[in-house]
Specification:
By secondary structure, the chain is mainly alpha-helical. The chain has 6 helices and 3 strands. It has helices at 2-12, 44-52, 66-79, 84-90, 96-105, 109-120; strands at 23-24, 35-39, 42-43. Strands 1-2-3 form a 3-stranded mixed sheet. Bound molecules: zinc ion.
Length: 124
């Protein structure tokens, strides 16, 4: 039972887009056959190699910067006619709370206040 779960986890491990080694996060114990996550879908080895070679732009970010997400959220909020749930869905979040967490993690509760005011009166 326990080992089955471990196998499932191992299968789902992301692989580095360059060297194809399975990657583990910094908190996990790394086996010799694994590499650490370095960002942009690369392991730390490949990341620094690409960085030094000036090729980091060849590897697009796989997550959107929170600033970009919040910019878009505010554009929709100012445009009007969308509920906070509509906006969250438009930005690819299945739940509004996920969008709220972006505001929170970015330390933009002030911006969230504006967002809330703008979307409050909107009815679905
Ligand atoms: Zn790699």
């Amino acid at each position: 039972m326990g080992s089955e779960a471990a196998v499932t986890r191992a299968r789902r491990r992301p692989r580095c887009r360059l060297c194809r080694f399975p990657m583990v996060t910094a908190r996990e114990v790394r086996k010799p056959s694994q590499r650490r996550v370095g960002g942009r879908g690369l392991c730390t080895n490949c990341y620094s190699h690409e960085q030094h070679g000036g090729r980091l732009e060849d590897h697009p970010r796989r997550t959107r910067r929170s600033d970009d997400v919040l910019d878009d959220a505010m554009v929709y909020a100012y445009r009007g006619g969308m509920t906070k749930h509509d906006i969250a869905r438009q930005l690819g979040y299945s739940r509004f709370d996920s969008l709220y967490q972006v505001f929170r993690r970015a330390g933009r509760r002030d911006l969230y206040g504006k967002f809330k005011n703008l979307t409050e009166g909107v009815t679905a």
